[in-house]
């Protein structure tokens, strides 16, 4: 289980554009090797662009480098690479969860390498008629995997070269069309040593066997290109022949390496630098019974008195950032239906510690982070129903809404822009304040608890019951979703700069409208925003906010009728293969706009067009990956329908493919006729490629992947989250032990608190110590299980296998660590 979270913070000192204004319009991409999985917004006219964007994903495949590319988009909308930062997988822990400035490096074809090659080498002795011993080398190129896609295609071939101080002999495989996982299985023979009488032109006499030690076999991978610039280099492998002296035959997988062409690159300083914060975790999840002791302690957190002595609260105390603790805790409590009592308990404790009602829930506490995470998980559908239609209209309309006189473009009218913006704000405000009945139950129950705790603590302040709730629903939920709709799945991509500016102005106004502060104009630093807000200084807006807050924070305030209108879950362009619905139709591949709602899965030619095909959710019988051999295309999956009809789809990258598979599986999970087996390959040329069965209605040959819960938003693996919490406790074990010392100190000494213990909230030292003991014991047991798992894995794993090719530095590090552990135990 691999997780990664990156924050693309900012770049600085980028090289100037060779034009009159010298500024650049830059964006940053996140890549697994060379596959792009995320792209930031474009920051215009800057050599020090600030992005400040978070990207979090579960990594669905192995990788060697996590790379970040800075691109510049010119006036003709052409993108050119400025530079990159490439972090090897084994080095990610060095930069774990800390801001680091990286120098941008030059990008060239020789350094952009990924993939692995499978070789078999055999060195044989041959005795001639005269009794002289010669050596011959057989090099078998079996296959490659994971080669990069170059300009949308990959037609690879390999060259095999025997090179020495005074000779070079090269041979070449056939070109394999349209695949980045080519199967070659070709053998090439080379004469390594010859008798001295051998005198063929262009060959060399090699009598000294020591010369063999200076020779090497080189395998280069190339993409056969039709372009005039020649074939593209994909990677190389160099193997000295001396390692064959010990073993005449050797078969292994190898990682391809960049080519060292000796070119002198420019100084890194010439390209500027990029600030990143990377969090990378790699966990192994055991079966559920392993986690029972630790999980039981965590789930009792809501019932512990005081809650500061609970395991969940302690996790928040020892983690470097509250967010680290909040993500797995919320998911675990949601999975087991304990989120409301837990958040109610920690929120009540925080309210009791708050002295000023104006600062209630304003800090980055465990409570606020847990509520944020709950709203993200439980409230995504709510945002889709409430905001998506108007956000789409704003993105497509491109109405000018700039109200800063300094930023007005030529030909724009300030009053017209204000009116455009006012209409957008009015409409969004109306849909929000009339959406109370759609607010998810779990969010309403939490808001009810916040309202009651705040009203009880500050009985003299009649507004605190509203501000306690508005600080979350407006400040931390609706306003961020309007500001960055792509992060909340309201838009598939970043809005363009003009639309982004419009959304920023709307977000600021909505945030202020929801705050219910008494002097709202004073909330704005900019005079033009204060002037604009005068439009909304009417009592009807405050009344609408209070009515909305009353509705979403009142217990038993709504009926539970299902919402009839379909909820858009995901959309975007993908490539599909025709299903053959027409008897004589072409089964070719076409780019289409796909939309998934809780009612149907459709595709159309372009966004907004009439659907060309509609698949009701109840007709989705299975959603599974498709093996690449079917169509020689990556990131493909299949949607299986009644009567064995199959829709084959290619996503844009591996992360997006996983997202589509997951959400399609979730929405169709309760279908009564779901399949239990499927074909992992396509039916082509009269047979299934996977099992070779000839009948197209043959039942599947492979079990379908495991079922998922029907509730889309709360699809959570409790064991996975408990493993994540174990990893955090294990990482911060020194703080747990320090907290134990603090409990002991407080129990026996009632004087001023020692400075090193002052960071911990310990209301009851005895109860806290008791919980800490259970945590440390549970973590220790799991640590032993992980150590045993690693030892067993180490015994079974072969270096040079397909899973761990030669050149896998992370595995070499692992071998070294295991050897040290074994030596220590001996």
UniProtKB/TrEMBL annotation:
Q: Does the keyword Ribosomal protein apply?
A: no
The UniProt record lists the keyword Zinc-finger: yes
- What are the GO MF terms of this UniProt record? calcium channel regulator activity; GTPase activator activity; zinc ion binding
Ranges where the C2 domain occurs: 1-102, 113-254
Q: Which residues form a coiled coil?
A: none
| InterPro entries noted in UniProt | C2_dom (IPR000008), C2_domain_sf (IPR035892), PH-like_dom_sf (IPR011993), PH_domain (IPR001849), Ras_GTPase (IPR039360), RASA3_PH (IPR037774), RasGAP_CS (IPR023152), RasGAP_dom (IPR001936)
An example GO biological process term is: negative regulation of Ras protein signal transduction
Query: SMART domains, from UniProt?
Result: BTK, C2, PH, RasGAP
Q: Which residues form the Ras-GAP domain?
A: 321-515
Q: Which UniProt keywords apply?
A: Acetylation, GTPase activation, Metal-binding, Phosphoprotein, Repeat, Zinc, Zinc-finger
Q: Which Pfam families match?
A: BTK (PF00779), C2 (PF00168), PH (PF00169), RasGAP (PF00616)
* One Gene Ontology cellular component annotation held by this UniProt entry: cytoplasmic side of plasma membrane
* Every PH domain range: 567-669
Q: What is this protein called?
A: Ras GTPase-activating protein 3
In its UniProt entry, the species of origin is given as: Serinus canaria (Island canary)
Q: What is the lineage of its organism?
A: Eukaryota, Metazoa, Chordata, Craniata, Vertebrata
